[in-house]
Amino acid sequence: MAEGPLQRATCARCKRPACVCYCSSFPAKLLRTERTHVLVLQHKHETHRRAAISSVPVLTQTLANVRLVTVDDDCDCSPGVSDDLDECLYNGGDATIDAAFVLFPDDRAQPLESTCDKAKSIGESKRVLLIVIDGTWREAKKIARRNRQVWEQAARSWEARGASFHYVCLGNEERIDGARARRSIYGDLRREPMEGCMSTLEAVASALYVLEPREIRQILHDSLLRAFKAKVSIQERYQEQGRVAKLKQYGGISKAKAVEMKRLERQQQQLQVKVEP
């Protein structure tokens, strides 16, 4: 009986092939936030088509207080769709959480830091739910717009029990320790749609720097970025190795260029055959 092709060894923790494993960049154990529970609404394409470069696996392997909900193509996040959503967000949400923040830059969103400063209900001892949307810009907008009405209903339910519900953004001028936010760590690995955009992980890291107590916020922020930088760097190096190997295979040119040259060569041969007496 013929044996099937050998499968590449896969890391048990990061679920990546051993050649692109980045687990050495993770903290020794999952870091626990003091105030913030993170709820990620992730479009399903991120878990399949873009798994190799998604930032969310790094987030869930670094932080303990993260829940991940996969969103289908219809982008429906209504009550009854997910047990995690029902528990965290609907029916007044988790009674132990005092405020919810939907992190998405639409026309309702206010800067997170100023929102926290203004909201009297958000004190140092309060627990908060940070809701982030993961996907392409088009997918994220669809999720936000598709659920606008049900989230407004959820906001009224939160307010009825004395909690608060906010739509927030980070903005292009978000600063960490006085330094203006730089280009996304993704670089050229994944092109962002416009200046100032960042990965889901980077957005969460910046939000935690605002929401978490001073004594741990820097550790959380830096640990997330360190692990994500490692993943991006390893993936870039692997892709470059593949590009160089392909150039070598096709005589120093790209595969597309080699195919085009072969096509032109065949055309030339056919023309020569036709003109022969």
Please bin the fraction of helical residues: 40-55%
Distance between the termini: 55 Å
Q: How do the SSEs run, as a string of H and E?
A: EHHEHEEHEHHEEEHHH
Strand content: 5-15%
- Rough outline: elongated
| Poorly predicted spans | none
Continuous helix count: 9
- Mean pLDDT, to the nearest integer, reads 83
Whole-number tally of structural domains? 2
Give me the secondary-structure category.
alpha/beta
* Largest sheet strand order: 2-1-5-3-6-4
C-alpha Rg (nearest Å): 24 Å
User: Largest sheet, described in full?
Assistant: 6 strands, parallel
Topology, number of strands: 8
Keywords:
DTWD2/TAPT, transferase, two-stranded antiparallel sheet, alpha/beta, 42% helix, 2 domains, single chain, 14% strand, 277 residues, elongated
Give a written overview of the molecule.
Residues 7-240 form the DTW domain. InterPro entries: DTW, DTWD2/TAPT. It comes from Hyaloperonospora arabidopsidis (strain Emoy2) (Downy mildew agent). This protein is α/β, with parallel strands linked by helices and 277 residues long. The chain has two domains: 30-236, no CATH class; 241-274, no CATH class. It contains nine helices and eight strands. The protein has helices at 44-48, 56-62, 83-88, 112-118, 137-146, 148-160, 200-211, 214-249, 255-275, and strands spanning 36-43, 66-71, 99-103, 110-111, 128-134, 164-169, 175-176, 179-180. The strands form two sheets. The protein has a six-stranded parallel β-sheet. The longest helix has 36 residues, at 214-249. The chain is elongated, with a radius of gyration of 24 Å. The chain starts with 35 loop residues before the first strand and ends with a helix. The model has no long low-confidence stretch (mean pLDDT 83).
